[in-house]
């Protein structure tokens, strides 16, 4: 017996206990699946509650003309079947096989109702068999595809009419079937519409995140190019290297390694980023400036590796700016912080500048320093005045 609700194209989760053989869900979303899970409990309540209630009612409504064997055996079978039905649905969900088997059991009882119910109750349509048949109709509509549920309901209606002695007596069941089928269709439609809205929202969010990641990667590549190749070419064009220079060759080699890194695949994000000691990286950044003497004041600081890489890149760009533009041969890098946080200040006493008049085309500060820190959740600020030097402050977290 398959636990998948083939009739609705989705597997109903077992209500408890072991899982039966699984099938993959079709197009149904989480709301639809939750509805079917609740339908399983509803079906159990209908069948168990109905069996207990209608057994008591049948015994109380019995007359002397009613055979004890005719009444006792079917009612015992109904109670046993209800217990098996509840156990099966609780373990494996509302499968079409168990639902159709339930339809067969109720239909058989309906066919035998003249032996179970006093004739006057059948004539007045007040027999307990009518609500029992209604429970089968409800279970059919909530568990099966509409065409299969309606077909099963038609069988129950016909069996009830034949058992009552007049097929027209099933008209109340027809109304119950139409109402139940309509309500279930509305509820399922609303659930699937809600799933569609949520799925569309999630897809849009994924697209936005992918576009943001693409743009962030693009900005990072621009920053790397600005800090390496463009910086080197600018120095060459300005005449900083009038003759062959080992410093120029070393800088060009570093630029080449950066370009090769851009061409390689991006590292996959890790759920648990390793921590990196900031000190050795800052020492390497300070040593990479050939014409600038850098005094370091360091304290032990550990940061997530991607954050440390971006912060050190900011410090390196700030030192290169001092080397190229400040008109001084000295700078200071002061670090404060600890495990998971830091504030780094790069200070020079050179000619300074007015940050408010920096043209938009100059991307060094805006992208290579401020943009980098914002991209990793940090913060950067530049304080400078003409003739009063410059202080660049970067910190993480912001």
UniProtKB/TrEMBL annotation:
<keyword id="KW-0902">Two-component regulatory system</keyword>
<keyword id="KW-0808">Transferase</keyword>
<keyword id="KW-0812">Transmembrane</keyword>
<dbReference type="GO" id="GO:0016301">
    <property type="term" value="F:kinase activity"/>
</dbReference>
<feature type="transmembrane region" description="Helical">
    <location>
        <begin position="39"/>
        <end position="61"/>
    </location>
</feature>
<dbReference type="Pfam" id="PF02518">
    <property type="entry name" value="HATPase_c"/>
</dbReference>
<dbReference type="InterPro" id="IPR050482">
    <property type="entry name" value="Sensor_HK_TwoCompSys"/>
</dbReference>
<keyword id="KW-0418">Kinase</keyword>
<keyword id="KW-1133">Transmembrane helix</keyword>
<dbReference type="InterPro" id="IPR036890">
    <property type="entry name" value="HATPase_C_sf"/>
</dbReference>
<dbReference type="GO" id="GO:0000160">
    <property type="term" value="P:phosphorelay signal transduction system"/>
</dbReference>
<keyword id="KW-0472">Membrane</keyword>
<feature type="domain" description="Histidine kinase/HSP90-like ATPase">
    <location>
        <begin position="308"/>
        <end position="397"/>
    </location>
</feature>
<protein>
    <recommendedName>
        <fullName>Histidine kinase/HSP90-like ATPase domain-containing protein</fullName>
    </recommendedName>
</protein>
<feature type="transmembrane region" description="Helical">
    <location>
        <begin position="68"/>
        <end position="86"/>
    </location>
</feature>
<dbReference type="InterPro" id="IPR003594">
    <property type="entry name" value="HATPase_dom"/>
</dbReference>
């Amino acid at each position: 017996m398959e636990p998948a609700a083939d009739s609705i194209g989705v597997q109903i989760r077992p209500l408890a206990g072991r899982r039966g053989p699984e099938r993959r869900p079709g197009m149904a979303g989480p709301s639809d699946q939750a509805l079917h899970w609740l339908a399983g409990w509803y079906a159990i309540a209908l069948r168990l509650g109905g069996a207990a209630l209608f057994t008591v009612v049948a015994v109380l409504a019995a007359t002397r003309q009613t055979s004890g064997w005719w009444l006792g055996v079917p009612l015992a079978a109904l109670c046993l079947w209800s217990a098996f039905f509840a156990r099966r649905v609780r373990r494996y969900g509302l499968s079409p096989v168990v639902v159709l088997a339930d339809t067969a059991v109720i239909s058989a009882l309906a066919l035998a109702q003249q032996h179970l119910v006093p004739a006057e109750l059948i004539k007045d349509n007040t027999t307990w068999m009518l609500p029992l048949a209604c429970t089968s109709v409800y279970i059919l509509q909530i568990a099966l595809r509409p065409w299969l549920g309606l077909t099963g309901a038609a069988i129950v209606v016909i069996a009830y009419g034949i058992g009552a002695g007049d097929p027209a007596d099933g008209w109340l069941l027809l109304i119950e079937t139409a109402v139940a089928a309509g309500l279930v269709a509305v509820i399922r439609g609303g659930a699937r519409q809600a799933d569609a809205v949520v799925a569309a929202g999630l897809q849009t969010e994924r697209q936005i995140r992918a576009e943001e990641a693409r743009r962030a990667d693009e900005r990072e590549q621009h920053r790397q190019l600005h800090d390496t190749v463009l910086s080197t070419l600018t120095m060459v064009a300005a005449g900083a290297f009038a003759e062959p220079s080992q410093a120029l060759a070393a800088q060009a080699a570093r630029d080449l390694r950066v370009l090769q890194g851009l061409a390689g695949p991006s590292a996959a994000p890790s759920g648990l980023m390793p921590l990196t000691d900031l000190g050795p990286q800052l020492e390497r950044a300070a040593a990479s400036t050939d014409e600038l003497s850098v005094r370091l004041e360091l304290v032990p600081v550990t940061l997530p590796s991607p954050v440390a890489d971006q912060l050190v890149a900011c410090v390196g760009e700030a030192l290169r700016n001092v080397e190229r533009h400040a008109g001084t041969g000295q700078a200071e890098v002061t670090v404060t912080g600890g495990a998971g946080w830091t504030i780094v200040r790069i200070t020079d006493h050179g000619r300074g500048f007015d940050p408010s008049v920096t043209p938009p085309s100059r991307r060094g500060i805006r992208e290579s320093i401020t943009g980098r820190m914002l991209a990793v959740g940090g913060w950067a600020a530049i304080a400078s005045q003409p003739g009063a030097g410059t202080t660049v402050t970067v910190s993480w977290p912001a």
